[in-house]
Amino acid sequence: MLSYFRQRLHKRWFNFRCSGIDRTPPLQCDPDSNVVIVSQVYHPDTTMLMLAAKSFAQHLRPRGFVLVDDGLRPDDRARLAHHLGNVEFIKTPDAAAPGLPRGGAWERFATLTRQNQQHYVIQLDSDTLTLRRPDEVIACVQSQRPFTLGTKSGTHPVTLAAASEYASQYDSDHVQNAAERALVQLPADLGTQYVRGCAGFTGFPPGTLSLDRIARFSGAMESLLGAPKWHTWGSEQVACNFMAANARDSIVLPVDRYPFWLPGSDIHHAALVHFFGTFRFTGGVYAQQGARLSQLLAGRQPR
Length: 303
Fold this sequence. Notes:
The chain is an alpha/beta fold. Helices cover 40% and strands 15% of the residues. Strand 1, helix 2 and strand 2 form a beta-alpha-beta unit.
């Protein structure tokens, strides 16, 4: 209970520190671009998403945004529509896909896949900040190559046997570890590689993703792990990691330029930082960087 209230206080302070994002000019999307940005958002994360979207889109203007509405209020939708320029909202139940689990960001992945039939799609989590020009990502879009966030334990795709062996070192019952241990048992025609990356920031050229193939992967994993386990938070990330690793010419972004925030991390040369849940507000760096970006986007010199 104490942790819950502490997180609420952190979020309120963050929203206050970063309220300047509302004084920045609306994004000008590019109707000639084939890039669509997909995210999932609910009311408490609206300011976070605006910062994530605007800090990234200043470097790579998209055609528009498709947002999975996981509990936005009417004023949230109006705020996002005003600031992001070209936005389509899809209610979470309407984004679900047959044959895939419900919840746990699966609706976001299904939306990303549908948009991928015609567009280069980028999945952008609301807890990311783009601090500098993401040259590697811009190069991937220009050359029509897939990309995904790396981790210290996932800097490049490996064989399914190697991924299973790595996961077997850890006695964890988390769905990601359980699924990774089971990778070696998958049918070979589904794919042969895996990367222990992150679904929070990933991109796919048009036609790379297929709902049918993702459903086949999900069904195989459900058979191996059981539905109660597979239908828990974290399974969508495993599916995204698998699809990214097996995509043609896929790139895993360098972790020094695209890191996860940890207390004491040096982010002076980082292009994009993922302020994931565990340490999001630790040290106040997230709010500090968000406030700085808000001032820059508003055309003012940060103090």
